[in-house]
Structure formats: structure tokens, C-alpha cells
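Thread: glutamic acid complex, take 2
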Amino acid sequence: MPTGPNARGTESTPSAAGAGRYAPSPTSDLHIGNLRTAVLAWFFARSTDRDLLLRVEDLDTDRVRAAGETEARQLADLAALGLDFDPPLVRQSDRLDAYAAAVAQLGDRVYECYCTRREIAEAASAPHADGFRPYPGTCRDLTDAERAARRQSRPAALRIRADSAEVTVTDVLHGPVTGVVDDFVLRRGDGAWAYNLAVVVDDIAMGVDQVVRADDLLSSAPRQAWLTEQLGGRIPAYAHVPLVVNSAGVRLAKRDGAVSLADLAATGRDATWALAWIARSLNLAQTGEQVTLATLLSRFDPADLPLTPTVFEG
Ligand code: GLU
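Output below.
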């Protein structure tokens, strides 16, 4: 059940069918790939009578400059496409106590780690096929004296002892996805709560039972599913949707030209144009067809979604 001060249920009545969410980071304006993922999260939630919640992932304060202004522009762009969200809006920066409480709940399976990236790279065994290097466990079983000594050298990160659990999640688009869960970071050495912890704690508290996001996060799903269970939550349904890429095949980014609604408007293409492009890219509309979200929702079928990236030329 939802818990904590920002849990759903006080201001709104949660849908019995559960909830999806869209969780942008307010680092820059949303580009057409981010907007396409938001449209898909909306289709997945609305086509299954779920609520759709919006969560602002503003924890990474080094990177998130002027997050408030960026957030306001992101919300305006989502509204310009016609996407609506159910209350309450959740900001991760308001939920620091919930992350601390979750780590406390995990008890003595959480341990301090003093390793630098370089030490980890040098000690790690061979990388996995996707380049990921599991944490080699250097700080897992230090004595109190060793800990006290290492604490002098640098601030500790916090890791969770996962005993290399092997976890399989089922993704709506990718089928079964198996991953080995290493002792991943819950809090970084600079004190910031880690993405994997915050996402899981928030999804549980918000009653999220459907996670739709870009497929560059697919490899995080086994880790997050495992942590969900450790915290007593229910593993959500996952749909990792394909990316929009630039002409070089690389994940779209701000530097790729006219990619945000503001950039597109400057070249005479409005939100209606953007929605039509998104619809065409998902095989939901013909070239040149005027579309509304309601029409697209009636055509939406996860089984017909493309599984490969779409190129946006800008
Ligand atoms: N905040 C992440 C992003 O903008 C998404 C995290 C998630 O959906 O789990 O890429």
C-alpha cells in the first residue's frame, strides 16, 4: 500500500486499475523522443483504465540547473500535446525522507563503500556483454577497523548486498529479460540518492503498477524489480519502448537541431505537427493525416508497436 507523506490517496482517489507514470528529469527541454515516450506512457495507461502520474526526477542537483523553469516548460509541452496526468504531481526532491526510510528498512544488508570508479574498474571481473561491470564486492565484508580507516579517505557511498541474485522480468515488448543483480549503489558518495533507489521507492509509494519508459533503461529493470520485492512492493508491468535516434543512430539529444517543441515552433512546426510525426513513427497514422490523441488511443495496440529505433532528421 502507498505510504509516506507524498503517497497517493490523500488528494485523489487512486484508480482500482492501478497507475502508470511518466518520469522526466528536468535537465533540459523534452525532445521529440522524450515526448514520444510520454505519449506512449499515456496510451498504455489510458488504454488499460489506469491513472497516469507525473514524477519530476530532480534529484541530481549538480546537473539540474534552473530545474523549476525547465520543469514548467516540460509540463507546458506535455499539455500542448494534449496529455493529461492525474494528481498529485510528485517531485523527488520532496521525498528525501522516504529514501532514507527505505534504506533504514533494508537494515544491515546496506553497507558503506569507499571505492573510486577506477578501483572498481581495476578490480572488476570481465564486463558483461552490454559493457556493464558488476561491483566486485571490495567493501562488502570489511571489518569495523578497516571501515574506520577507509572512512578517513573519502565519503562513503551506500550499496545493497544482493548476492548476485538472478532476476527475470517480463517486458510487454521484449519478453523475458534476465539480469544478475550486483551490489548496486543506493546513495552516492556525494550524498545524492541513487536513481535505482528513488525510482523503486517512488513507484511503490505512488501505486505504480505499469512502467513505460525508453528501452535504454531495460537493463535496469531486473535490479529495480529485485529491490521492489526487498521493499515489500509488487513488481510492475514493464514496457520499454524504442528510442528516437539522430541520423547517426545515436539517442536523440538537444544538440541534434530542432528537436524540442520550441525549436520546432521556430521552424514553423507546431505541437499538432509533432503529434502527427509521433503517430506516423508508431505506425498509428498515415503521412499527412491530421490526428487527435483520442483517435490514436482507439488505434493503439502494444502488439503493433515498432521494436526498433526511429530516426528523427530534425
Ligand atoms: N528520469 C528518467 C529519464 O528521464 C526516467 C526514469 C524511469 O522512467 O524510470 O530518463
